[in-house]
Amino acid sequence: MTHGIDTDFLVAVEILDHPFHRQADALLQSLLTDGHDLALAPQTLAEFIHIVTDPKRMPQPLSMAEAIGRAEHWWQASEVVRVLPDGQAVTSFLGWLTRYQLGRKRLLDTLLAVTFHQAGVKRLITNNERDFRSFGCFDVVTF
Predict the structure, then answer these.
(1) Please, which residues bridge with residue 80 across strands?
(2) Does domain 2-141 fall into CATH 3.40.50.1010?
(3) Domain map of the chain by residue range?
(4) CA angle 82, 52, 97 (to 5 degrees)
(5) Do 81 and 122 meet the contact criterion of CB atoms below 8 Å apart?
(6) Does the pTM of the predicted model rise above 0.90?
(7) Distance between CA 11 and CA 24 in Å, rounded?
(8) Gyration radius of the chain over CA positions
């Protein structure tokens, strides 16, 4: 089965002193051992780089070069299925914002959800369960 990756999972896996690193890494290892694929969207990588280089969010932020290197590693990983938003995804994104009456703080999650949904991803790894349950189309896996 393919599991979509939310940014919080990617950050927790990559940042060793993250409070949920052990749980995220254990989940990652379990999924890979069981032969699951991981779906990754470019917007997740952009948000990942933004977060891990931010000194307001990270006690020891990564340099841009380090963050880009880690993002590139994920993008090139053989276990990763790349999912990309297209024109229909943008149309659905705008529609979901209206349908679910979402505000500006839900933009990135909504575009990610639409991108995964359009790619047929039914399971999503995140600790921000509330952000994705409302769409009614994902099994959410927390770590």
Answers:
(1) 38
(2) yes
(3) 2-141
(4) 55
(5) no
(6) yes
(7) 9
(8) 15
